[in-house]
């Protein structure tokens, strides 16, 4: 074959379109795999469970159908999205090539415990790991065979692939390379005006190029880069949920598939799954009102719930120790926070009220971002930080459309939006600067509890642990092993660098 023919063949391959439905099936299949592995983690190893899981998963994937569209990504676009996904996750510390933020002290310890201990296992005196562990299951299994390095690389491959799939699916929301590149740029830069917040609270003089800027307010709406680097499990769940809703909004996805997303995503992030519920409620009402509901729209979420029943029961064990309640917060700091983080973007966004992602969709985004700071689950403001992920992603997509002409925005509004993105983008710049400046984080040598006490000892461990007697009887491990003790030399073989937190 001549060189010209080879180049022509490669060009033809790269130009081929990849069905968005296939990419969504891959993501849903992975989430379903995690639900099955959770059964192994808690000791439900019956062949009958595996057979039921496989049958239900095949049925679910068969119902996950999206019509082909001219906006489906090409092979070249998919490869670019995968490259970006891997770059994001690797820069955030996955694979242990670059610095990982201090939240990973606990996550690395959880992965270590799941890797070195036979499943199921308990911590002394009789506590079981009960947390959203979807992100760790496959890497832990790989690590059992290939050690710590294998687990680290598996985590990178998993998270990078899922991020790439999410970006590729999201690219089908836009028509043409220009709109996709603008949408991606807005999404990656999207952040509140944290540097302004630092100035308002008087910390600006102490800010460094590698500081974490988002702790200035009474709560936090995390930037895209912060989400990717600090909490990829919550980010991926929230992004996939938001993308599914927007596909429904464009009438490319049935409400049934949308309803199936929360139970599938809960093992990665129940908080992000909560964040998409108001959007799903609207979609369900809309399709009911317009008589678009079909019997299969009820079958799909029922199948997804059946697949994830053990996971949902596992996550709900001892839920009263976590609970939802109002978040204690003074009105003035809250109003300043909203004015700096969200209000400028909403003022611009409302000009696109009649756009594809305006109207009721934009109203729900605004309501979520206004109300979430007042709600709390557990001991911190995690619900606001993670439940806001779908709304922030949808808002970013809506604003991105203004810049490429998806809805008519004046030159003044476009200039204002670009200015806001540039100022807010400084938050992401500091995250990237830290990743490439700080030393690679050390591998874990201690168990979850010891790692937690290194940085988070002032907070209860209720979001991660439950006594075994509080587990539902049907999923309660009957003969668990005792978790291995921590390395007596300490948690890490060298200090874990800490960024300035304001």
Summarize the structure.
With 502 residues, this protein is mainly alpha-helical.
How does this model look, in words?
The strands form three sheets. The protein has a two-stranded parallel sheet with strand order 1-6. It has a two-stranded antiparallel sheet with strand order 2-5. The chain is mainly alpha-helical and 502 residues long. It is globular. The protein is built from 20 helices and six strands. It has one domain (18-482). The chain starts with a helix and ends in a 20-residue tail after the last strand. Helix content is 60%, strand content 3%.
What are the defining features of this structure?
two-stranded antiparallel ribbon; mainly alpha; 20 helices; 3% strand; 6 strands
Topology:
Blueprint: H1 3-15, H2 20-41, H3 47-63, H4 75-91, H5 104-116, E1 121-122, E2 127-129, H6 137-171, H7 177-189, H8 194-200, H9 224-230, H10 232-249, H11 255-265, H12 270-289, H13 295-316, E3 324-326, H14 331-341, H15 343-349, H16 360-371, E4 375-377, H17 382-387, H18 389-404, H19 411-437, H20 448-455, E5 465-467, E6 481-482
Parallel strand pairs: 1-6
Antiparallel strand pairs: 2-5, 3-4
Helix pairs in contact: 2-3, 2-6, 2-13, 3-13, 4-6, 5-6, 5-20, 6-10, 7-18, 9-10, 9-19, 10-11, 10-12, 10-18, 11-12, 11-13, 12-16, 15-18, 16-18
């Amino acid at each position: 074959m001549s060189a010209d023919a080879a180049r022509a063949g490669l060009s033809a391959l790269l130009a081929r379109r990849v069905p968005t439905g296939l990419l969504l099936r891959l993501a849903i299949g992975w989430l379903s795999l995690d639900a099955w592995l959770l059964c192994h983690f808690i000791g439900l190893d019956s062949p009958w469970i595996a057979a039921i899981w496989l049958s239900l998963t095949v049925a679910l994937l068969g119902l996950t159908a999206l019509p082909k569209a001219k906006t489906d990504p090409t092979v070249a676009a998919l490869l670019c999205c995968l490259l970006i996904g891997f770059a994001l996750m690797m820069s955030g510390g996955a694979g242990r090539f670059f610095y990982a933020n201090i939240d990973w002290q606990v996550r690395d310890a959880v992965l270590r415990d799941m890797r070195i201990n036979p499943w199921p296992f308990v911590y002394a005196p009789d506590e079981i790991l009960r947390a959203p562990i979807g992100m760790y299951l496959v890497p832990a299994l790989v690590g059992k065979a290939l050690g710590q390095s294998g687990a680290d690389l598996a985590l990178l491959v998993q998270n990078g692939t899922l991020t790439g799939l999410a970006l590729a699916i999201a690219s089908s929301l836009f028509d043409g390379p220009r709109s996709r590149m603008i949408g991606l740029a807005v999404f990656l830069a999207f952040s509140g005006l944290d540097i302004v917040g630092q100035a308002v609270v008087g910390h600006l003089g102490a800010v460094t190029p590698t500081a974490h800027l988002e702790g200035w307010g009474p709560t936090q709406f995390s930037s895209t880069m912060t989400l990717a680097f600090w909490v990829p499990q919550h980010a991926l769940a929230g992004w996939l949920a938001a993308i599914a809703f927007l596909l429904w909004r464009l009438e490319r996805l049935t409400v049934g598939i949308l309803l199936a997303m929360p139970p599938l995503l809960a093992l990665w992030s129940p908080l992000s799954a909560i964040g998409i519920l108001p959007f799903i409620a609207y979609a369900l009402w809309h399709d009911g009102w317009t008589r678009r509901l079909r019997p299969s729209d009820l079958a799909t979420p029922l199948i997804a719930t059946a697949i994830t029943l053990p996971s949902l029961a596992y996550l709900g064990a001892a839920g009263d120790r976590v609970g939802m309640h109002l978040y204690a917060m003074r009105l003035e700091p809250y109003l300043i926070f909203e004015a700096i983080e969200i209000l400028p973007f909403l003022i611009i966004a409302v000009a696109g009220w009649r756009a594809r992602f305006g109207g009721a969709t934009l109203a729900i985004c605004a309501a979520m971002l206004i109300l979430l700071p007042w709600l709390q689950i557990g001991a911190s403001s995690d619900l606001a930080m993670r439940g806001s992920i779908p709304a922030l992603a949808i808002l970013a997509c809506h604003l991105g459309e203004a810049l490429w002409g998806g809805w008519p925005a004046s030159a003044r509004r476009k200039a204002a939006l670009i200015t806001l993105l540039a100022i807010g983008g400084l938050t992401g710049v500091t995250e990237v600067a830290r990743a490439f400046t700080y030393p690679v984080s050390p591998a874990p040598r201690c168990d979850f509890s010891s790692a937690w006490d290194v940085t988070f000892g002032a907070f209860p461990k209720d979001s991660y642990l439950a006594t075994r007697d509080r587990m539902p009887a049907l999923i309660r491990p009957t003969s668990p092993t005792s978790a291995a003790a921590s390395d007596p030399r300490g948690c890490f073989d060298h200090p874990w660098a800490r960024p300035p937190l304001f």
